[in-house]
Amino acid sequence: MKIKRILLVATVALSATLAFSSCIKETFPKTGSITEGQLLTGETSAILDKLLPGINADMLGMCYSSSMHSDYGMFAMGVFNDYTCDTIVNMGDPRYNHFLSAMWGQGYGPTGTMANFAWWRYYPQIKSCNQIIKIAGDDETLAKYRGIAKAYRAMFYLDLARMYEPMEAYAPRIANYNEELYNRDVLGMTVPYVDETIDEQSAKNNPRLTREEMFTRILADLEDAKVCLENYNRSNGSEPNLAVVYGLFARTYLWLGMDGEDDGWNGSLPAGKAAMEKAREYARLAIAAHGGSVMTEAEWTSVTNGFNTVVPSWMLSLIYSSDTVVSNLHNHPAHFAPELIESYCALFVFPGVPTTMYDHLIDGDFRKKIIKGPETTYAEFAQYTSMSAEEFDAFPPYTFFKYRPGSGNRTDNMVAAAISLPLMRVEEMYFIDMEATYHIDGQEAAFTMLYDFMQTYRNPNFYAKETNILDEIIFQKSVEFWAEGLIMYDMKRLNKGIKRKYEGSNFDEKSQFNTIGRVPWWNYCIPMGETDLNKGIKQNNPNPDSGVTYEN
To answer: What domains does the chain contain, in order, with CATH numbers?
Structure first.
């Protein structure tokens, strides 16, 4: 099948106006190698074979600023979200922490870095998906391309909806807080939706969708992706397959289920326990389709391959190579691999876990074995690190040795940065199943599931320290997915507060505050550049800065 010139003119699926206005000249992804002349005479499948890897490749690189060393791909977006919670601690000089804005809750207003970073991270990616969906059309011989692109698009919009939907929030360090700020009619609103049919004029008058409208579209994409990818066998883990589609269904229905009650914003979509039933159903389908392999102790604690190499439990991965590493600092190991010698992590930042997280973990849990405890000696830890005793002793207690430099290489930053990172692991599906069961069947049934998982896969000596099993499930999930970008969505959905100020806290002084519910910056603001150009956006989310007056 040949592409006609009339299709070429409309090939570029426009992003929201902010992304559109700056990307209009970039007709095809930078990672592609196709010219318009080739498109005029090319076979559609060959063209799509060139364009499709561009989605994943663009998820590996910068989107906002070369001076922002935490701008190293889609995974970094999730790390920013994790830093807004109370699960990651940096025990060095905060000034060298390139995720500091999230730790301190700064830059989330309409002109702030975080609002713009998130927008630029997602909408150009959606544009690439739209382009492929438009070219593939309804041709069933091209179904796999449409299915992969729709799965990605659903994943991107799911993240955006969860970040930008405003929910009632509370200010830390309250001195002068206007609670009415969060009782406006933006509640239940998400973001503008851009698909393959939009034109420039429509993009300039594109309103925010309600939760019901947005999730109806997300579910429609997933339904089509499910059909398209039913018999698709991918060559590697960097593209969605049927198991990933089921996993995205599970994430979607978990959000719609909120805290197990209907909050009134789902409209005709399943809500509360009905949504949790669907989340559980799809989590189990994802486990079955993927095969259910859970990461082993050897895979978690490997000095050379720990969380830098694809393993069977990883359902969807980002795979960096020497060609896709941007620089010696724009990469995950530079910020999170303690053994990488010339890095922020090793020299300045020292990322780890809060004292409360370490104390809550029960001895025998192999995840605790790769956290340097306050009394841990080098002799005890030697099997879990390639450091010398002198190097190890220089790191503060509670440093987490979860991420290792690529190939275990400690001296060549570019080799160390050529790693893989998980975007979805099968373990997440087990935790979704547990939580959904808690909301549907109660404490006892969820206790049984958590015990079985923990004692089988993480700690044969496990017992629950929390009397409320949901709290224990969320705690164990926060350890399991430390710095993987999942926990903020659970905290926001369940209206969990954060706790950083307590006796023995190892958070830096400015980060030490507690809340009784959501923090304001879990509700991202739409960038001013978008609201200025897109007249369809009538109201932005409340600016977190205007609702918080910090104590001295």
So the answer is: 5-298+424-547 (1.25.40.390)
